[in-house]
Design a protein that fits this description.
Elements: H1 4-16, H2 26-30, E1 33-36, H3 44-57, E2 61-64, H4 69-75, E3 82-87, H5 96-108, E4 113-117, H6 120-124, H7 128-144, E5 148-152, H8 160-173, E6 177-179, H9 190-199, E7 205-209, H10 215-223, E8 228-231, H11 234-238
Parallel strand pairs: 1-2, 1-8, 2-3, 3-4, 4-5, 5-6, 6-7, 7-8
Helix pairs in contact: 5-7, 7-8, 8-9
Length: 239
């Protein structure tokens, strides 16, 4: 006898023309979400809610400002979701030693993942040696302390050649993820995902973020090979 849920899925496929690859379960979605709130008006109560929701829905992490890392780490002790925070956010042009200290302090206070913004001023100035050294310095510190490093390259502000060069640098530095956007300069677009995929191998994963607020778009991103989703609309997406 065929289980009822299988028949339901078959009916959905028949009615919509979806394939197995196109249908993504909620579990596959929730396990990839970085439950995010990075606006300046965040409060302790918001962090409380983020952490409780992350545990309830088994999100990959909560992504919050450095100020709240210690609080989130305490709330998520012995829980599955990880603690993610940002460095050099949102413009990336703080000096390298400042980024290193931000990352060090965040990890000391319980962060498992660091989302670091590339120095966009140096990118636009085509000072690739500076960009490499900036990323490598923070990445080495972060990874030596056992945390993941995700490099935010801010795709809405880049042309394809700049994305290509940043992918090449990220490969050399051996970062864990390339992340598309801060969300402050515009939304992620599928074209950018395809460009990134073209210039990296399986050693680096992709985190998409910026304007992601629907399950259909999340499905599209996952099917395109995205491993993490950064969004402040997680509850809306899974509801």
């Amino acid at each position: 006898m065929i289980p009822v849920h299988v028949e339901v899925v078959r009916s959905i496929k028949s009615a919509t023309g979806l394939t197995d690859k196109m249908i993504t379960t909620d579990k596959k979605i929730t396990s990839r979400i970085d439950h995010t709130f990075l606006k300046a008006n965040i409060t302790g109560k918001i962090v409380d809610s983020l952490c409780k929701e992350a545990v309830e829905y088994e999100f990959a992490s909560v992504c919050i400002p450095p100020y709240f890392v210690k609080k989130a780490a305490q709330m998520l002790t012995n829980e599955k979701p990880r603690v993610c925070t940002v460095v050099g956010f949102p413009f990336g042009y703080s000096c390298t030693p400042s980024k290193v200290e931000e990352a060090r302090k965040a990890i000391d206070e319980g962060a498992n993942e660091i989302d670091m913004v590339v120095n966009l001023a140096a990118v636009k100035d085509q000072n690739w040696n500076f960009v490499f050294n900036d990323l490598q310095t923070v990445a080495v510190l972060t990874q030596m302390r056992g945390a993941l490093v995700k490099v935010i390259i801010e795709t809405p502000l880049l042309v394809d050649d700049e994305i290509k060069k940043l992918c090449e640098i990220c490969m050399k530095v051996n970062v864990d993820y390339i992340k598309t956007c801060t969300g402050f300069a515009g939304p992620v677009e599928m074209d950018s995902i395809e460009v990134i995929k073209h210039y990296i191998d399986d050693s680096i994963k992709i985190k998409a973020s910026g304007g992601i607020n629907s399950k259909s778009f999340v499905n599209e991103l996952i099917n395109a090979g995205v491993s993490r989703i950064g969004t402040s609309s997680a509850i809306k997406i899974i509801s």
